[in-house]
Every structure is written in C-alpha cells, then in structure tokens.
Amino acid sequence: MSLFDRKKYIGKKFGGYTIEKTLGEGRYGMCFLARSDEGDMVVLKKFKSRIHAKNADRNAHEAVMLSRLRDERIPELLGVINEGGFYAFVIEWKPGDTLSDLLFKQKHRFTEQEICSIGTKLIGIIKHLHENGIVHRDIRIPNVLMEGDRVYLVDFGLARFADSDRYRYDLDYSYLGDLLLYLVYSSFEKQGSKKLPWYEELEMKEGQKTFLKRLLGIEKVYQGIDEIERDFADAFCSK
Question: In angstroms, rounded to a whole number, what is the distance separating the alpha carbons of residues 44 and 204?
C-alpha cells in the first residue's frame, strides 16, 4: 500500500472509531491508531481485502487466541469492524515503546538489570501462552512493548494452537533467544573487523552463553518453559 493509500484513512471513521495515524504495515494489512467517540484509544488491524478473502480461516486464529488469553500483558480483542470494504479487528491499545524503537531509534543500551527484568516478564507471558496451549511464533523486538517496568506482547497474527508437528513450543524458544541477543548486543562495542559468532564475540558468563545456545538450538533444546524460566533466572538475574 502506497503512502497515499495509507493517508486516505486518516481522519476517517469506521465502526465508531476515528483513525488518527498509521502504526505499521505488514503482509496481511495495516494497523492504525484510532479513537472512540468516548476518547479511548484502540488499534484497528485492517486486513487487505484480497488477503482477507483468501485467508479468512487464518485470520480467525488471531481472534480466537486473543479471546482466550485474557491477561493485562496481552491486548484484548474488543470487536470486529466490517463495513464498506473495511474489515478490521478492534484491539486494545497498549502504551509504551517497542524494543525495536528503543534499540534503533532511541539507541538505548540495555543494562544487565533491564535484561533480567524484561526477560523474566517476557518468559512469564510465554509461560501463560503455553499453559493455554498456544504458540506465538513471532516474539520479535517490534512485537514487545515496554512502558516503565511493564512489558506487553502484541501481534498474535501468527499464533496457533500447539501440536507436536508444525506448531511446537520450541518455536517460541528460538525467537526468545534471538530477542535476548538484541538486548545484549545493545551495549556491545565491536573491536576490530573480524567477524565472529556471537558466543565468541560477546563477553558473557558461560551460563548465559549455554542458556542462549539451548534456546537457539545450538545445544540441547529446552523441553519446557519451566526449565527456561529457572535457567534464565540463574544465568541473567543472579548476582
């Protein structure tokens, strides 16, 4: 969708919500920040017409997941809009900055204490998902929000009910490992031009390296989130 196409929605009203700005665009559609007549902020996740028609069953997964996962750390599905070719989910707006914006726009360097806090809270969210039989499959820095000491996980478009074949829990483990590496690298200053793998380049405790290697499948993969929760606390939160 072109910039012109995106702008044409600004100021328009759908389902009682007035669109204020574009939040982002993906393969399946766009997200807008909108305001209700009462002044409440929401996210409108608009699906592209041809994508919606072709993937109606897949789109329904997100609605089912969000309806099942009632938790303040996860946005709530508030409704659906289907009018005049505008099909969108109405999703609770969560405040804060994405980890992506903090890293690349604000150039924030995450401290060990912050990494401990973020990792602990994010693992807690993943644990809640897995206890409900759900795999997120997209735990990336643009989908994790921070506001003060609060952490939110958003965008459940790829979430599915877990099975032993295609949608395994360990898919979330590798995403978590990659995300944690972004946080660790935020305070890294490269010396020289030689390219090295992260586990040789970063100055980390052996327990931290082993933990990340297991998340990323370099060493024996974790079998469950409880083990991950315990080992993360030992590796990243112990003095």
Answer: 41
Using left for φ > 0, alpha for ψ between -120 and 50, and beta otherwise, residue 93 falls in beta
Residue 224 is classified by DSSP as: -
Cα–Cα distance measured from residue 116 to residue 120, given in angstroms and rounded to the nearest whole number:
6
Q: pTM for the complete prediction?
A: 0.91
Rounded to 10 deg, the angle between the 225-236 and 112-131 helix axes is: 170
Q: Which domains does the chain have, with CATH numbers?
A: 3-92 (3.30.200.20), 97-236 (1.10.510.10)
| pLDDT per residue of the chain (239 residues) written in tens, 0 to 9 | 444 466 789 999 999 999 999 998 876 789 999 999 999 999 999 987 765 555 556 667 888 888 888 899 999 999 999 998 899 999 999 999 999 999 999 999 999 999 999 999 999 999 999 999 999 999 999 999 999 999 999 999 899 999 989 999 999 999 999 999 999 999 998 877 788 999 999 999 999 999 999 999 999 999 999 999 999 999 999 87
